[in-house]
């Protein structure tokens, strides 16, 4: 049959057709079972087929599925905005709903620039970012992304936003020890700001834990304090891209809580609708909104489907489900257990070079030689092979950008739904072990 669905990443490849999902498992139409240890793309945070979410969708669909945001608001959108403000740190009291993580980071960028314009400062237009980062696929979001592979085709259309190294301790660009490094890679931001001029820069954006382009790269203690101080000193807003880390993924509502920092703007997505509906958001603090509220009173962004009641009802139901079942509180315990099991695997499989991350966002980096940390040659396409092998073994794991910047090795993310149980983690590890045995 001629295939017309263009959205599949590898055109012409045979993708299994999923029939249904239940909890952490997906089942294809030939009856094969997959343990979803990647939550899709770190999205299905509460697993598949949750009755409470399905009921909320049905209820909202019966009332109204769509109203246009410049004409109406809805109960679902208002309650969701209120709930998010209550559950997040600081004064992130303003919520701008969109439909994808890319739209959320791009909206965050636009709000940051608008903030300065409304204050009468029109030179602050640049948004700085880090290499080995991913903030989305639309042009503004891609401009901010330090993902060389995804940028390559569109370079002439992109602004040159990535400027500093990531806090990639496993392969520290300065060859320093994380415990005693003086956060040189964070201090770089200060140098770059001096070169460009603070009066040109609206904001700095970073993923608290780098996901898709590095495999849960987690900064050392104190890193974000330095970043935040540099931003504040230079009147530069700090945007936390929590599209992957937000909504409990790392064991806190926002990953920024782990380092006790309050971002000026936050981008949310993925786990917000947990895969049941497309929804994302830019959360904005009171101090960022103040000049906009006193000025134009309009945020110059938005999409036709922004804040549609159907998606808002889903996200609200997801938050209520997380709260009612105390799911975020349990993440830490599950994380400790998962890491312990992964470390045992590491004893048997020398190609596991590094295990890192927080909560249920764990990265594994693979190396040819553990002592030397030598990456496998790119031509081997190790990540793709491992992922395929795992899928054959009924296990889904997530690729995390091998060879970005030409420095990192192959890495994958293990990020099951937060609702995974301890026996299910054992099953995940069993399938991972079989995958690694077949690979070695
Ligand atoms: N920001 C981060 C940190 C992401 O991981 C992603 C997607 O992987 C995005 C933004 C873009 O989100 P979306 O794919 O929903 O546009």
TrEMBL record:
<keyword id="KW-0032">Aminotransferase</keyword>
<dbReference type="GO" id="GO:0030170">
    <property type="term" value="F:pyridoxal phosphate binding"/>
</dbReference>
<comment type="similarity">
    <text>Belongs to the class-III pyridoxal-phosphate-dependent aminotransferase family.</text>
</comment>
<dbReference type="InterPro" id="IPR015422">
    <property type="entry name" value="PyrdxlP-dep_Trfase_small"/>
</dbReference>
<keyword id="KW-0808">Transferase</keyword>
<keyword id="KW-0663">Pyridoxal phosphate</keyword>
<dbReference type="Pfam" id="PF00202">
    <property type="entry name" value="Aminotran_3"/>
</dbReference>
<dbReference type="InterPro" id="IPR015424">
    <property type="entry name" value="PyrdxlP-dep_Trfase"/>
</dbReference>
<protein>
    <submittedName>
        <fullName>Aspartate aminotransferase family protein</fullName>
    </submittedName>
</protein>
<dbReference type="InterPro" id="IPR049704">
    <property type="entry name" value="Aminotrans_3_PPA_site"/>
</dbReference>
<dbReference type="GO" id="GO:0008483">
    <property type="term" value="F:transaminase activity"/>
</dbReference>
<dbReference type="InterPro" id="IPR015421">
    <property type="entry name" value="PyrdxlP-dep_Trfase_major"/>
</dbReference>
<dbReference type="InterPro" id="IPR005814">
    <property type="entry name" value="Aminotrans_3"/>
</dbReference>
